[in-house]
Each structure stands twice: as structure tokens, then as C-alpha cells.
Write a structure and sequence with these properties.
Order of helices and strands: HHHHHHH
Strand content: under 5%
Number of domains: 1
Structural class: mainly alpha
Shape: elongated
Largest sheet: none
Distance between the termini: 51 Å
Oligomer: single chain
Length: about 160
């Protein structure tokens, strides 16, 4: 089942709904505090990281529901992993690192960014090889992407509120 793309359409539809809703909520939250985000490279980079995490799940969903051969999906997942991984790496470097101890420092150190990109790449590669799990790797990739995005959004929105209040 991990190598049959037709069996994953329902997962793709559910993932699209969740990722789309979270992305929309992120935009609403960002628009409310846009002035504070615009003034801080660190906060705007963290916001962009969160957006990339949510959009990675949304793009996985689009790729899953598109009618295409498994080999095409495998290559697209590898490309998505590369692009999102590079974008997340650049944004993380632009944001710098937290100096305060606590949750923000922990999330930075054990970032969902790398985990998400690696798991999407593994899904694409094992789908192409037809060995090693195939699309089953997208489940932990989506979980890492969505949970990581939610935690990241919470942390930087708390920081935005504290800086603007």
C-alpha cells in the first residue's frame, strides 16, 4: 500500500484541509501584527519558516491527489524536500538563535525543519525504489510539519505580543 499512489488520495485530501486551515489562520495572525513582524528580521524569518512548514504539507497533499504515475510523485517529493529544506535552512540562519533558555531554544535545537525535509525525501526515494516504506514516510513528515509549524507559530506570536505590548 505504501507504493500505490491511488490509496493515498484520502490522506492527501485530509492533509490539504488541515494545512490549508492552518496556513489561513497564520495569515490572519500575521496581518494583525504585521508592523511588529516587519520591524524584526528574526520574527519575520520565524514567521516565514512556519509558512514553509505549513506549505510543505499543503504541497504534499496536492502531489498526492494529482493523477500521476508513482515515479513522477517520487521525483516531485524529492524536489519538494530539497526546496523546502534549503528554504528552511536559509530562514533559520536569517532568524539567528534564541539566547533565552526554555521552549524556544529547545524547538530551535530539535527543529522540525530538518526532520520534515528528510522524511519527505525518504518517502520520495523509497517510493522510487519500491522498498523501505514508500508513502508511509509521509505520515511522520506531515505530523512533524504541522506540529512544528503550530509550535513555531505559537512561540513567535507570543514573542510578537510581548514586543508590541
Amino acid at each position: 500500500m505504501g507504493y500505490s499512489t491511488a490509496m493515498w488520495a484520502g490522506f492527501g485530501e485530509a492533509l490539504a484541509a488541515v494545512a490549508g486551515a492552518l496556513t489561513g489562520l497564520l495569515f490572519v495572525a500575521l496581518s494583525v501584527k504585521g508592523d511588529v513582524l516587519a520591524a524584526s528580521r528574526r520574527l519575520s524569518s520565524r514567521a516565514a519558516e512556519t509558512l514553509v512548514l505549513f506549505m510543505t504539507s499543503a504541497l504534499i497533499a496536492v502531489l498526492l491527489v494529482a493523477p500521476q504515475p508513482p515515479a513522477a510523485l517520487g521525483w516531485e517529493l524529492l524536489a519538494l524536500a530539497a526546496v523546502s529544506g534549503v528554504a528552511l535552512f536559509i530562514l533559520d540562519r536569517r532568524a539567528g538563535h534564541a539566547t533565552d533558555p526554555g521552549a524556544a531554544r529547545f524547538v530551535e535545537r530539535y527543529s522540525p525543519n530538518t526532520v520534515t525535509a528528510v522524511l519527505v525525501a525518504v518517502a520520495g526515494l523509497t517510493l522510487l525504489l519500491k522498498a523501505g516504506g514508500g508513502l508511509y514516510w509521509l505520515i511522520p513528515a506531515a505530523v512533524a510539519s504541522l506540529l512544528g509549524g503550530v509550535v513555531s507559530a505559537w512561540l513567535f506570536l507570543v514573542k510578537v505580543t510581548s514586543q508590541s505590548g
